[in-house]
């Protein structure tokens, strides 16, 4: 199946580049409320699934034992920009469990946001594993192990007790088998499993509604989503899509990006979960896609709809600040009748 | 027309992302030697066309008047990384015409290659217009104006004498009309025109062969291509695709990248021009596409073919250096019978 073109990049009046993709919105029962393109194709959720991967942290009692509030739980669900607040928060999470940066197995990388990278380089520092966008998630993994008395070393490996708990959570929430046939290694070295896009949407509808989840899991799911929505800076950072989108409607919409053009969302008040994947892996397209879907979901609230549409349909400027084009969702997407 | 998938990104054994695109190879007469996908679609060549944009610099006599050798001419055709050698060379080109950085109208940006950016930030410097990847091209424009006694200010604007000369060169070499209907503004603020992909390939076949070009233009074209092939570091930089590909067969193959997934090439000894465009604008895919096409063109030279194929089909590593997947051209592309 060839997915439709959902986002176009214009230079002047001419389309310069095109992004294909698929979109699915489900309710807590997994009923498809809306879809475009192939929603059965196995898709690596990558970092989009971090909130589900953080369930054992809450369910195990580790989050309570270490006194984690919204900011720490948001960090456990985050792909953060490695800004000073993120780095210090990750260090603090580890310290509460008697650990430090040396326990992290995610590797180090320079911050991906250019202003953050430049500030770090100018300061004369080098990035550590605390700057890794996944450091909050990994700190959460380590805290879970520590609280449960499980060996921390090797927590990131396939088959470790921690990754078995994470896999069980992902299977139960998304309803998709997580098999070795569709297992790969993520950027931060943990296993990642490709699942049908519709299951990813269903997983986030379930995170929001708790449908068919055990009561403790449903409660933990909602607590994590509420934390992310309450502290969106700690889910991403300055000028990042996840942060800006969640700030548009505090407490009412959850979103999370994943590498290679994935984005998920949930609208708890409507009990909906959303998953989008840009075929070619482009973040710029996935951002336009999730914002457009949210705009249609909130079509009865003109101000919020307009903010979301403006986010999705953006002018692009060159090095001299001259507007040279726009990145725009196509009619196939903007005319979606979702809500 | 839906273009075929030409490059796949695997994570483990599963395809994570897919890139569609089109490819065309022509001879100097414009005869299509090989093609895949839509080769009529208007395509902005972006920086891929810089060697053609540099023709007035040579034809006007400016390059000789200012004593430009291979490195300066390569810089005029370059999208360089803003490494110290690029910056000093651009400054020197301007100085020979009695100008300095303040004459550049391309704007400033931080180097796009992370190690170069980090080194600059650590040094406490800020990027200037000399660091702009287009500074060599703009220095060439300014030298042309200066040599011809044309007002330098405004040289980058649509309708300026310099941009009229550049447009005339692009029209004559590619054989495609350059009209306002398909005109946009490039990253460095000069006009850019979308033309059919086949004309872009034909343009580079003509640059290599001189077919149907006036003798002075044919000579200037070959001088620019020879300069780029002789000084490939000045066309791009450390670990950049253009530099590495041209270094594989010194003097025998020319390549140049353009933003939004464009790549052009030429093989002078065979009189062939090549143009590829990845639909979604991804550089990683355009690099795999051009290298694969070149590998097929050089299929009778096992060592060179193998180097090109290895460049096209690359392992990807995560922050811990673990190989997690590959980016691979599809069979549709690797089985191309070009030569």
From TrEMBL, chains A, B:
It comes from Phyllobacterium pellucidum. This is Asparaginase. It comes from the Bacteria.
């Amino acid at each position: 199946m060839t997915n439709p073109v959902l986002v176009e990049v214009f230079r002047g009046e001419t389309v310069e580049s095109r992004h294909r993709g698929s979109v699915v919105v489900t309710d807590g029962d997994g009923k498809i409320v809306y879809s475009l393109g192939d929603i059965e194709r196995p898709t690596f959720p990558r970092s989009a699934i971090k909130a589900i991967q953080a369930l054992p942290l809450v369910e195990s009692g580790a989050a309570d034992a270490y006194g984690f509030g919204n900011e720490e739980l948001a960090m456990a669900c985050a792909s953060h920009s490695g800004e000073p607040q993120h780095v210090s928060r990750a260090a603090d999470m580890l310290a509460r469990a008697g650990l430090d940066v040396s326990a992290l197995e995610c590797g180090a990388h320079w911050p991906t946001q250019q202003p953050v990278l430049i500030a770090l380089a100018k300061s004369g520092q080098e990035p550590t594993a605390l700057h890794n966008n996944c450091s909050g998630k990994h700190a959460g993994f380590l805290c879970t192990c520590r609280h449960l008395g499980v060996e921390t070393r090797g927590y990131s490996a396939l088959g470790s007790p921690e990754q078995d708990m994470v896999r069980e959570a992902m299977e139960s929430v998304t309803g998709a088998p997580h098999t070795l046939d569709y297992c790969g290694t993520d950027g931060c070295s943990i296993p990642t499993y490709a699942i049908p896009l519709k299951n990813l949407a269903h997983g986030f509808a379930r995170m929001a509604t708790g449908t068919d989840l055990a009561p403790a899991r449903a409660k933990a799911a909602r607590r994590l989503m509420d934390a992310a929505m309450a502290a969106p800076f700690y889910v991403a950072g300055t000028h990042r899509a996840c942060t800006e989108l969640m700030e548009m409607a505090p407490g009412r919409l959850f979103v999370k990006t994943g590498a290679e053009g994935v984005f998920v969302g949930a609208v708890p008040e409507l009990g909906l979960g959303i998953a989008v994947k840009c075929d070619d892996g482009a973040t710029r397209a996935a951002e336009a896609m999730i914002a457009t879907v949210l705009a249609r979901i909130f079509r009865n609230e003109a101000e919020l709809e307009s903010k979301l549409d403006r986010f999705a349909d953006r002018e692009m400027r060159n090095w001299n600040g001259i507007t040279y084009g726009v990145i725009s969702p196509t009619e196939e997407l903007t005319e979606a009748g979702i809500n």
